[in-house]
Inverse folding.
C-alpha cells in the first residue's frame, strides 16, 4: 500500500449463504405443514371409513339375522301347528275304537317291533311307524299312533320343502313316527336303534322340560343323511298328561356354507351358542365334526378364539359392535332367533387403516409435490429479487471501500452512502411487495381451480359409488332370487332322470309342473331385471293409443286366474267403460305388476279389487288388497329400485324389488303418476293416473 491511499478494511466472507438459509427454513416449515395435513387427513379418513364400515356392517348383520332366523322361527311354528292339531283331534277321539284300523295298518315283525304293513308302506308319501315290542298297546296308545300317522302324512309333505323331516315320539321312545321320503326310517332301524335315547326325545319329557317349552337340540352330524342338522322339539300334553313330542330335523349345511363363504371382503363369519359352543367357522369345521358338534371355544387351544369368546361374553347387553381386547378387530354380533345362537362377523381394523393410509399418502404426495413447486418458485424469487440486489449492493459497498466509483444505479438524492442504501432498500422492498401481491393472487386463483376440480372429482366419485352400489344390489338380487329356483329345478330334473322309470305318471307330471312353476318364477325375475335395464338405458319407446280398460283387465284377469285360484283369492274388476291414452304393453305391465304385488301380499281367501274412475282429464285406476299394508316409515322406499320392505309374501313368493319401480317409471313416461294409500295392518290401495283418451285422438307416427 502506497502512502496516501486509504486504509481499506475488507470484511470477512459470510459463513453461510442467506439464500440457502432462507430456502432451507421455508422448505422445512412447508414440510411440517404437509405432514400435519397428512396426519389430519389420515385421522379424518379413518373416522369416516369406520363410520361407513360400521353402518354397512350393521345393515349386513341385520339382513343376515333375518335370513338365518327365518328357518328356525318357521320350524318352531311348524311343530306348534302339528302339536295343537294333535291335541285338538286327540280330544275328539276319546270314545272311538282304534283297534281294527290299528291292526289293519300295523303288524309285528320277528323281533316284535310294530311297523306299517309292507303292502301299505308308502314312505315317500306317508309317515312311517316303529313301536317297541315292550310298548303297552292300549286303545289310548293306538289312537295316538293312528293320529300321529295321519298328521305326519298330511303335514309332512308341506314342510318337506325346507325341512329334512317331521317326527312324533309317543311316550318317550315307545313309538317313533316320521315323515322322511328320502329313506324308510322305521323299516331300516332295529328295536335297539329305537330304544337308544336321543337328545330330541329327552327334551320332550317332563323331567327334562318341566316348563313344556319348545326347545332346540345341539348340532350333530347325522350318519344316515351325512349332513349337519339340529332338531326342534315341542311337548304334546293332554290336559296336563304327557303324551310325547313333535319335532323337525333342520339341515344346517346351507347355513354353514353361507356362514363360511358369504361375507364382506376381508372379513369372516362364525356362529356360536351363547354358552360358547362353536356352530360354524370357516377354519374349524373339522374340529366341530370331530367333537360331534360339541366344540367349546373355552377348550380351544387357539388363543384368538378364546379372546373372541371373552370379548363376546363381556360385551354389554344388546351391543351390536365390540372391540377385541387387542383393539385390532371389530366384532359385529346379531342373534339368530329361534335357535338362540349368535351370528358374529370379525372385521379387521387393518382394512380401514389401509384405506385411510392410501388417502393420507395421496395427500402427502400432493403436499410433497406442492413443496417442490413452492421451493422452486421461492428459489427463483430469491435469486432475482434478493440475492442479486444484495450482491450488487455488496459489490458496490466493496468497490466504494476500495475507492472505486459508486455505480450510477446506486446514486440517489443523498450525497452519502447511507442514502444510496436506503433508496435501494426501499426499491427492493417495493419490488418484493409487488411480487408478494402477485403470488397471493396466483395462489388464490390456483386454490379456486383446485376447489373446482376437487368438487368435480367428488361429484364423479359419488356417481361412481352410486352406480357401483346399484350394480352390487343388482348382482345380489340376481344371485339371491335366481339361486333357489334354479337349484330346485336342477334337483327336480336330476330326480326325474333317476326315477323316471320308477315313478308313476302322475308323480312325474307333478315334478314337471314344479319345474314349470320354478321356470316361470325365473322368467318373471329376469323380465323385471330386463324391464328395469331397458327403462334405465332409455331403450323403451312408448306408442300411446286409446286403450279400453275393460278389455285389458279381462285379459289380465284371465291370465292370472290360475294363480288366484291357487291362493283361493278373488279379483273383482270395475272398468266403468273408460278408455285411457297409453301404450298398450306398458299399461299391461303396470296392471300386471300391481296385481302381482296384491296377490303376493294378500292373504288367502281374500278379495282384490281393481276399480277405474274418471277425474277430469285423467283416469284413476285403483288396485286394492287386504294385505298387511305399508308402514308409514317405509312409504318413501316403496317405489325405489331394489326396495325390500318388512311385509312378507303370504305364499313364500320371492321379489326382486323392481316391480313398483317399473310401475312408477312407466306411469310417468306416459304422462301419468302412481301413489299408494295404506295404513299398516289394513291393506294397501295403489292409485295410477293416466290421461283420458279423448274422442278423435290420433296417435303420432
Amino acid at each position: 500500500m502506497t502512502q496516501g491511499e486509504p486504509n481499506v478494511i475488507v470484511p470477512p466472507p459470510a459463513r453461510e449463504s442467506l439464500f440457502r438459509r432462507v430456502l432451507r427454513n421455508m422448505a422445512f416449515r412447508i414440510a411440517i405443514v404437509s405432514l400435519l395435513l397428512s396426519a389430519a387427513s389420515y385421522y379424518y379418513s379413518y373416522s369416516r371409513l369406520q363410520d361407513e364400515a360400521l353402518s354397512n356392517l350393521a345393515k349386513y348383520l341385520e339382513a343376515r339375522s333375518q335370513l338365518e332366523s327365518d328357518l328356525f322361527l318357521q320350524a318352531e311354528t311348524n311343530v306348534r301347528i302339528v302339536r295343537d292339531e294333535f291335541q285338538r283331534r286327540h280330544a275328539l277321539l276319546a270314545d272311538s275304537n282304534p283297534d281294527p284300523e290299528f291292526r289293519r295298518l300295523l303288524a309285528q315283525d320277528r323281533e316284535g317291533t310294530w311297523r306299517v304293513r309292507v303292502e301299505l308302506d308308502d314312505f315317500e308319501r306317508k309317515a312311517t311307524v316303529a313301536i317297541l315290542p315292550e310298548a303297552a298297546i292300549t286303545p289310548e296308545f293306538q289312537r295316538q299312533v293312528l293320529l300321529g300317522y295321519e298328521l305326519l302324512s298330511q303335514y309332512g309333505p308341506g314342510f318337506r320343502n325346507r325341512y329334512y323331516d317331521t317326527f312324533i315320539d309317543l311316550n318317550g321312545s315307545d313309538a317313533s313316527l316320521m315323515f322322511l321320503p328320502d329313506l324308510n326310517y322305521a323299516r331300516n332301524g332295529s328295536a335297539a336303534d329305537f330304544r337308544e335315547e336321543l337328545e330330541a326325545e329327552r327334551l320332550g319329557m317332563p323331567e327334562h322340560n318341566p316348563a313344556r317349552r319348545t326347545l332346540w337340540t345341539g348340532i350333530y352330524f347325522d350318519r344316515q343323511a351325512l349332513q349337519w342338522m339340529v332338531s326342534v322339539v315341542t311337548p304334546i300334553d293332554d290336559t296336563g298328561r304327557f303324551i310325547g313330542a313333535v319335532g323337525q330335523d333342520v339341515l344346517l349345511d346351507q347355513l354353514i356354507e353361507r356362514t363360511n363363504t358369504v361375507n364382506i371382503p376381508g372379513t369372516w363369519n362364525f356362529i356360536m351358542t351363547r354358552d360358547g359352543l362353536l356352530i360354524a367357522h370357516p377354519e374349524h369345521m373339522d374340529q366341530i365334526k370331530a367333537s360331534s358338534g360339541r366344540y367349546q371355544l373355552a377348550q380351544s387351544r387357539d388363543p384368538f378364539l378364546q379372546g373372541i369368546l371373552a370379548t363376546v361374553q363381556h360385551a354389554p347387553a344388546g351391543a351390536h359392535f365390540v372391540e377385541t381386547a387387542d383393539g385390532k378387530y371389530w366384532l359385529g354380533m346379531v342373534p339368530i332367533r329361534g335357535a338362540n345362537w349368535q351370528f358374529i362377523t370379525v372385521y379387521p381394523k387393518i382394512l380401514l387403516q389401509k384405506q385411510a393410509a392410501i388417502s393420507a399418502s395421496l395427500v402427502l404426495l400432493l403436499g410433497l409435490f406442492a413443496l417442490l413447486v413452492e421451493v422452486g418458485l421461492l428459489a427463483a424469487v430469491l435469486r432475482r429479487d434478493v440475492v442479486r440486489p444484495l450482491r450488487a449492493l455488496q459489490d458496490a459497498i466493496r468497490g466504494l471501500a476500495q475507492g472505486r466509483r459508486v455505480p450510477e444505479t446506486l446514486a440517489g438524492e443523498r450525497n452519502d452512502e447511507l442514502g444510496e442504501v436506503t433508496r435501494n432498500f426501499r426499491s427492493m422492498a417495493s419490488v418484493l411487495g409487488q411480487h408478494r401481491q402477485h403470488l397471493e393472487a396466483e395462489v388464490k386463483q390456483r386454490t379456486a381451480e383446485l376447489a373446482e376440480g376437487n368438487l368435480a372429482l367428488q361429484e364423479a366419485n359419488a356417481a361412481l359409488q352410486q352406480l357401483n352400489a346399484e350394480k352390487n344390489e343388482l348382482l345380489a338380487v340376481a344371485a339371491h332370487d335366481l339361486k333357489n329356483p334354479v337349484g330346485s329345478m336342477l334337483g327336480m330334473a336330476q330326480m326325474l332322470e333317476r326315477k323316471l322309470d320308477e315313478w308313476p305318471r302322475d308323480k312325474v307330471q307333478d315334478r314337471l309342473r314344479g319345474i314349470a312353476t320354478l321356470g316361470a318364477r325365473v322368467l318373471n325375475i329376469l323380465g323385471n331385471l330386463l324391464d328395469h335395464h331397458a327403462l334405465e338405458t332409455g331403450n323403451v319407446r312408448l306408442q300411446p293409443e286409446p286403450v279400453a280398460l275393460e278389455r285389458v283387465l279381462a285379459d289380465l284377469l284371465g291370465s292370472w286366474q290360475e294363480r288366484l285360484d291357487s291362493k283361493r283369492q278373488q279379483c273383482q274388476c270395475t272398468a266403468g267403460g273408460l278408455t285411457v291414452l297409453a301404450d298398450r304393453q306398458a299399461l299391461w305391465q303396470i296392471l300386471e305388476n300391481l296385481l302381482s304385488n296384491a296377490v303376493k301380499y294378500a292373504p288367502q281367501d281374500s278379495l282384490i279389487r281393481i276399480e277405474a274412475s274418471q277425474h277430469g282429464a285423467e283416469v284413476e285406476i285403483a288396485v286394492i288388497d287386504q294385505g298387511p299394508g305399508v308402514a308409514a316409515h317405509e312409504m318413501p322406499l316403496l317405489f325405489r329400485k331394489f326396495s325390500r320392505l318388512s311385509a312378507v309374501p303370504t305364499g313364500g313368493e320371492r321379489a326382486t324389488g323392481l316391480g313398483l319401480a317399473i310401475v312408477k317409471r312407466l306411469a310417468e313416461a306416459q304422462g301419468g303418476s302412481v301413489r299408494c294409500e295404506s295404513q299398516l295392518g289394513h291393506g294397501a290401495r295403489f292409485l295410477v293416473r293416466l290421461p283420458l283418451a279423448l274422442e278423435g285422438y290420433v296417435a303420432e307416427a
